[in-house]
Structure formats: structure tokens, C-alpha cells
Amino acid sequence: MMLSRSPVQRVINIGELVPKSDEFVELPTGVQRVDFSGLPESTLERLVIKPRLSRYRAAVEAAWAAKDAALISHLPAMTAAVSLACRAFHRTPPHLAFSFNFTELPVGRRRDYFQAALKEVTQFCVFSEFERKLYSDHFNLDLARIKRINWTQHPPRPSDHPAPLARRSYVAAVGGEGRDYATLLKAAKLLPGIPFLIVARPHNIAGDLPPNVRFMCNLPLEQTWRIAVDSTTMVVPLKSRTTCCGHITLVGSQLLGLPVVTTESEATREYTESPSVAQCAPGDFTALAGLIEKRHLNWKADHEVAQDQVASCLVRYDRQQWAALVSDFLKQHSIW
Length: 336
Fold this sequence. Notes:
Layout: E1 9-15, E2 31-37, H1 43-47, H2 53-65, E3 70-74, H3 76-88, E4 95-98, H4 108-117, E5 123-126, H5 129-139, E6 146-148, E7 171-174, H6 181-189, E8 196-200, E9 213-217, H7 221-229, E10 234-236, H8 247-255, E11 260-263, E12 277-280, H9 285-297, H10 299-308, H11 310-316, H12 320-332
Parallel strand pairs: 1-2, 1-3, 3-4, 4-5, 5-6, 7-8, 7-10, 8-9, 10-11, 11-12
Helix pairs in contact: 2-3, 6-9
């Protein structure tokens, strides 16, 4: 006798910085997704950002809804908040902590807070093998609870609006997390004949800029990628060998067939194996300048190499990897 399929199962999906309608993954047939968001929904929540009131409101809502459901949270602060809320409501859902990534590791009382809050989380997903060991040691987590998976995304969609400088006349650097723009500016000073366009956050740049550097901030994402696409090369200068940032920029650039210059980090090792990516030691502005100059002068050949890698990158960074991981998690915990 065939057993009938169980009633529709639910997954509570809660993000920190994305709207409820944000694309994540396609869930298996018969599994309902209920979204919650930590973005502000009222004037009060827009005003109270320390602590982030909207995060804890969303965490409480998601935890209350998590009865007889699986829970997927995104980013560490939301994971901790919703885990504590579940504890308060005596909810024990299978909890998948996605995008578990820190720009800077918390220390002191903040570390103690996370260590206590993360006890009931079932599984963590990180984007590098280096981060598995790093977070296991720092938060005293069983390494078996931490799974590495590639950062994945669809190819970025650049704007049709042209960049402020002529195409292929400049070097671009974009992104604000974990960046070492001080070293990039030193490198730019050694290359006065090469224009630079930097798209980052206001706090990323301090002091006077060299004459050949233009700094822009608060640009729409599509315009940022247009600046990247029209450049001779993309630069991703990371702060140190343990900086756990840069994945989105590295992957997006490779999916668009752009040559990349970056600084070495253990957390980006899996994303820099392509021949389109050149690396030097972090903080070495002389070596960085040398790589940038070489890429800028030989941009045609380097773009051909990068374009040849796009097909393999589309496979390597296919979002279906995330869908498979989520499906396996749900099967493992009898949600699907």
C-alpha cells in the first residue's frame, strides 16, 4: 500500500538585511516558505538602531511561527536573536544558520553572547573551509555542525548607464567590507598615469585622495557593476590573510568575465583559483601596484582569459548548490 504524502510542511525563512520577497532558493515541492525580515517596518524601528529594534521584532515573530517548522536564518546577528527567541518560546525547530560570516570576530561580552545564543542551532553554513575552523574554535562549536558551501549568485546585471570615465581607461575597486583601501591608495600613488574609480562606503576612505583616484559611494548596485564591467581590471584589496570578506565581489567579477587583482586571504582561497585572478600579499602596496599596472596595460588579453572562464564559473557558483543543501537539511530533519 502506498503511503500518502504528509501535509504541506513549513520553512520559516528570516533575513537580516533583505526584504521578505528576497530570492533565496526554490524549496522542494510541498514545502511552504514563510518569510520574515529584519528590515525596519515602522518609524520607531527606523529610529532605534542600537540595538536594532527591527531585528528583535522579526526574531520574535519568526520564533513564534516556528512551531512544527524548520527555521533558516541569515547572518550571525539574526541567527543569535531568533535562536534566543525560540528558547524563550520553548521552540526547538531544526535551525539552519545560513551565511554565517563575520567581518570582524566578536570579542569579550559580545563573543560570550554569541556563544550562549548559538547552542541550539542545528547547522551552520559558511563560505570557506578556513571559516569552519575559525568559528568552531572561536565559539566552541562542534566542527561537524559547520558546513562549507560556495557563495553562489546569478551574474550581476550592470546598468545601461555608462561609467563616469571612458570604457577601459581606468581600474575599478568596489565593496566596503574588510577592504584595505589605504594600501590601494598607496599603490595608486605609484601609478599616476592610471585613473582609479573606487565605489565603497563613506567610512572606507580617509584623508586626501591622489589626483588619479575618484571615490564614489551610495551608488545603485547596477551602476556599481557597470563601473566594474567597463574597467580594465577589478581590485579587491583585503585587510589581512584572515579577512572573511570579498566573496560577492570576487564571484560577481568572475561571472562577468572580469580580470581581478586581490590580496591573499585564507577565507577567499576557494575563489581565487581561476587564471583570471592575480594575488599578492596583503599590505604590500608595491606588489599590488605592479599587478595592477600589468593588468591595466594588458587588459585585452586578460579579459579574453577571464571570458574563457565564465562557463566554468557559472557551474561552480550555481545557486542550485544552495537548494540542494537546504533540501538535504529538510530531509535529514523529516521536514520533507
